Amino acid sequence: AQSVAQPEDQVNVAEGNPLTVKCTYSVSGNPYLFWYVQYPNRGLQFLLKYITGDNLVKGSYGFEAEFNKSQTSFHLKKPSALVSDSALYFCAVRGLTQSKLTFGTGTRLQVTL
Amino acid sequence: DVKVTQSSRYLVKRTGEKVFLECVQDMDHENMFWYRQDPGLGLRLIYFSYDVKMKEKGDIPEGYSVSREKKERFSLILESASTNQTSMYLCASGNSGGSYNEQFFGPGTRLTVL
Fold this sequence. Notes:
The structure holds 2 protein chains of 2 kinds. Chain A is mainly beta. Chain A is built from no helices and 12 strands. In chain A, strand 10 and strand 11 form a beta hairpin. Chain B is mostly beta strands. Chain B has one domain (about 5-10, about 15-95): Immunoglobulin-like (Sandwich). Chain B is built from no helices and 11 strands. Chain B has strands spanning about 5, 10-15, 20-25, 30-40, 40-50, 55, 65-70, 75-80, 85-95, 105, 110-114. Chain B is globular, with a radius of gyration of 13 Å.
């Protein structure tokens, strides 16, 4: 079985500071890893994904994520947070032989002035 | 841009009613999915479909059924709505051809069952 853990329900950051949203996963074999963002009253939007290759993946809106195989983590990062980044962020994993995507419980990011 | 639309943004139904939620995508995607989103539980897969007239159960199919008569349309049916089905329902679509393809989501339908 595959699973995702997002250990923080909420992350608070001041605008201009770096942000990290944590994600760890469990899957048999190599993982495919995704980050999605959900703004209020909207569906989920794809941010970035790791398939293979470089462990640092760059995505939309200046976000990036680092794949760490030994720690089974895929943390989302941004060097300088914006108030407009405030939203709900979901990490998701899919194993090579799995037909389904498994989502974490979500982390609410609150960026304040 | 991929567009996934859902028939209603908000829906209020009574216990025991039959409820239809419809989803349409315009990118000729083979795969379509229905999730429900609940606070603290994240997204949970109800059903998915890899082709017309094909369906597979997700993690929480009980109390739900689906229909896919055309490639672009995937319907979720609550045969007899219950209060514990009050939730946000999200439809998604995606290409086949690999586990690495991302999914594209509709805006969601917030269903309240009274």
